Amino acid sequence: MLGGKNKDNQFATGGTTLLAKSVEITGDIKFGGTLEVEGSVKGNVFAAADSDAQVNVRDKGLVEGEIRAPKIMINGHVTGDVYSDKHLELAAKAVVNGNVHYKVIEMVKGAQVNGSLVHIPEGEVAVPAPKAAPKVAPTPIKAESATNT
After folding, report:
1. What sign results for the dihedral spanned by CA atoms 28, 25, 67, 32?
2. Per-residue b/e over 33-44, b at no fewer than 16 CB within 10 Å?
3. How many Cβ atoms are within 10 Å of 94's Cβ, its own excluded?
4. Do 37 and 20 touch, CB atoms closer than 8 A?
5. In terms of DSSP bridges, do strands 34-37 and 112-113 run parallel, antiparallel, or are they unpaired?
6. Burial (0-12, 13-18, 19+ Cβ within 10 Å), 69
7. Given CA atoms 15, 19, 21, 23 in this order, what sign does their dihedral have?
8. Residue 74 belongs to some domain of the structure
């Protein structure tokens, strides 16, 4: 029903977001629903651990940073650690340069992991809430003069 109050549908949980091949994002991404990465992300990608959020890094997709999501499917390149709290799939063209933390993993022939595979025991959470970045006060720049003695 259009305009209904059903909060279980995909739009209520974040819908689907596509980062197309021509998109390059610098900075962290927090998302809900499904995130499709065909372009490149220079930053961390994370979703709430208690959600059903899923990130898909497609064959031309690139992420330079951590990925933290309950469900992750990688068929592109990731440079950084990967944390999956529910299900992780590494497809044939997947290349991960970093450690892979998982509860359930599927790895297809051809997938590469240049790091450690770390199983997360039941009862532990792989996707903790991200920590706030410390605030850094700007440092004034001092001019120095050269003295010859």
Report:
1. positive
2. bbbbbbbbbeeb
3. 24
4. no
5. unpaired
6. buried
7. positive
8. yes
Which residues make beta-bridge pairs with 84? Answer: 69
For residue 7, pLDDT over 80 is answered with no
**Which residue carries 């991200």 as its tokens?**
130
The count of domains in the chain is 1
Would 7 be classed as within a structural domain?
Answer: no
pLDDT in tens, 38-85: 999 999 999 987 789 999 999 999 999 999 999 999 999 999 999 999
Give the distance, in angstroms, between the CA of residue 30 and the centroid of all CA atoms in the same chain. Answer: 9
The tens digit of pLDDT for each residue in 107-149 reads: 999 999 999 999 998 877 765 555 555 555 556 666 665 555 4
Residue 86 has pLDDT above 80, yes or no: yes
The Cα–Cα gap between 126 and 20 comes to: 28
| Residue 112 belongs to a domain | yes
DSSP-derived 3-state class of residue 119: strand
Q: Do residues 96 and 117 make contact, with C-beta atoms less than 8 angstroms apart?
A: no
Residue 137 lies in a domain: no
Is residue 90 a contact partner of residue 111, using CB atoms and an 8 Å limit?
Answer: yes
Residue range of the domain that includes 98: 16-119
